[in-house]
Amino acid sequence: MGNIITLNLTHTGLRGPIPLALGRLTLLKYLDLGNDKTCEGCGPWNRVTGDLTALGTLVNLERLILTSNELSLSTFPTAIFQLTKLTDLRLDNTLIEGGIPLRISTLHNLQYLYLGNNSFGGTIPGSALSSLTNLKELSLWGNSLNGVLPPELGNLVNLTYLNANKNNLYGGLPPEYGKLTLLKKLLLYKNTFTGPIPDTWRGMTSMQDLEINVNYLYGGLPSWLLKMPAIKILQLGNNQLSGQTLPVLNISTAPSLKYLYADCNYLEGVRPKIDNITAALDYNCWENEGSLDSACVRALNCLNFQLAVSNGKCPVCPSGQHMVNTTTCICFRDPENSSKKLAIAAIVGGVVGGVFLLLLVVAFFIFRARKKSRKSQPAVSHPDYFQIENGGSTRSLSQSWEAPGGVHHFSIKEIIKATNRFDKANEIGEGGFGKVFVGKFPCGRSLAIKQACIADYSSETGRGQFRNEVSLLSRLHHKNLVRLEGFCDDGGQQILVYEYMKLGNLHDLLHGNVQGKHVTLDWYKRLEIAVNVAQGLDYLHSFAHPPVIHRDVKPSNILLDDNLVAKVADFGISKETIEMGTHVSTRPVGTAGYWDPQYFLRLQLTAASDVYSYGIVLLELITGRKAIESDGLEEDTNIVEWTRAKMEACQDALHSIVDPRLEGDYPKRIFKYLVDLALKCASFERQTRPTMKYVVSVLEPLLQEAERPPQRSSQSLSFSRPLSSSTTETKVGGTGSSKSTIRSDIEFSNLTGDTWDTFPTVASTRTEVPQRGQSPELEKPSSTI
């Protein structure tokens, strides 16, 4: 047993803490217990938990991979510090909290350190990390790290990959990073960096992928930026960059460039015409294109911003920050503000129960007021359809507007004919945009036609909002979003045409009737729908450009096609859904029962608001109950409170909350995961909710596993599928690694007890430790890594 050097158990269905017996493999150099979410059909996911104490004796270990497990630790696992020979440590997406300890510097052989997508807080320990002089790849993305980006990391001259996106970092971009001549990929998007792009960064001559979008960077586009010899991907969007661009945007000087995103800035002059690459330059201050569009939220419009710049003023600092350098316009976090936030958080925590109940009452009355207001609105006059059908005048918005490609421009005559003059018999619903009709077209295809409220869209502002709606929706393409087929903007109408979802919406499937028959969804289809919706929302949050907050996630906005594939509907900016940055609104949004409770405290909408609503939808799929439902008591019951009360009543309460229509036919362990995930999504505090990307990473493996449900469950490591006790083909290495076949006489069936105390004898195996491959591929811009 002691002769094993390489052990790869990825995607083998491991469960629970690592047995102490594994620590007997003292010659082990390579251990992979992780999961690869990009690998389809690789087998059930591992769900390793615990503090990794059992690994402390593996002093010869060089590579340790635990990616996408469920360690659920409140601090960094200290057993790691005994493994001083480690060159590759991957603890990304493992549910670890706390700070990154200074003791990380004792792992002086590290070349690859992946800590992304956890809950690490505090500052990045620059001095400790900079002592890891062999470091090539460092991933810290998707945590809660704050403070400045350490300038000391500029001393890591071997660094080729640095990812710190989606944190709470602030201050300026460190000029010291210009010394990183081997750096190929730098991802810093979705922080609050301020100030200019450092001129020293022209020294990063190997740079291929630079993503510094969604920050508060200020200043002009450096003339050297597109002249970086290896640059392929350049993401600069959603900043405060300004100035004339024609001298800079000369694509001929950047032959390797494939992607250029610089939308939502303050760039001036004539909009450059760029061919042969993928480029996004919308929502700037181009001549003859007006000022910044409502798709970008900024403190100043183009004119006011340009006046401020000409007067030598800096832009306003991000919320909670103050100016520390008026020359470079760099802002730092306000310490007084931080302490106030802590005090407020403590107060809110003390009264959270009472506040939550109060918010439910407020939400109820707002819901009733909105419903009453909608009923009392004056009737909207429609154009004379007979006149239009017989050659009457129609006024088209697109006569002065270049409509986006990829969608069909329907005439009002086509729409009138398809809906039989908007016959009431063809009306199939009403949403946030307006009434919805089904239209039958000559080709035999049925499409859903959404007719806007004319009172809302007849003004110049309303027409501009409709243009934004069409422009944005035409760029959103995902298998779990209802597809925009076309639009109509003449005859005094603004109409959106979507694919028709024959089976209607999830609300009716769960709580009503579909085509006169009551439909009961089995457990597997419910899980599929949960995955479909999560994937659609993840696309809106992470991959749409600009990102979109749905704001009204609920079962009636989840439609199903003939194969019961779920697609998210009623997304877009018609309800002032702007971008992923915090959006302040004084108008109630969403639907009672699905409202983010934090909205009533801050009047702010974020992606976490969608996550909360998704959690409610997931609970409805599990329980079959509505978000707010009457149990015959004096007060209606909220589904979150109801579920939590049931789960706390007894240890085995799952059967009391799962939809009785399933008649007990569902996998208990998977549904327990679903309940825990739903309640996590529906947490009162936003910072405790997961991202939709994390939700997808949890649900997709459950769906894969559901096709081959495990025969038994154990608190220890166990396998949900049999493995051969003879020759096993084992995948080793990262990108560029080959497969090698190792022979092992491990009797895997013996590894399902509470511990591995009877760990079997293993035949001598000698295999070279796989080497790490190249940095991540640079084929397309990444929203997350």
From TrEMBL:
| SMART domains linked | LRR_TYP, S_TKc
Domain Protein kinase residues, every copy: 422-703
Which cell locations does it reside in? Membrane
List, alphabetically, the Pfam families matched: LRR_8, Pkinase
Q: Output compositional bias ranges, type Low complexity.
A: 711-726
> Which positions are annotated as binding ATP?
450
- Ranges for the region named Disordered are 706-785
Q: Which GO terms describe its cellular component?
A: membrane
- Gene Ontology terms, MF aspect: ATP binding; protein serine/threonine kinase activity
PANTHER family assigned: LEUCINE-RICH REPEAT-CONTAINING PROTEIN DDB_G0281931-RELATED, PROTEIN KINASE DOMAIN-CONTAINING PROTEIN
Q: What is this protein called?
A: Protein kinase domain-containing protein
The species this protein was found in: Physcomitrium patens
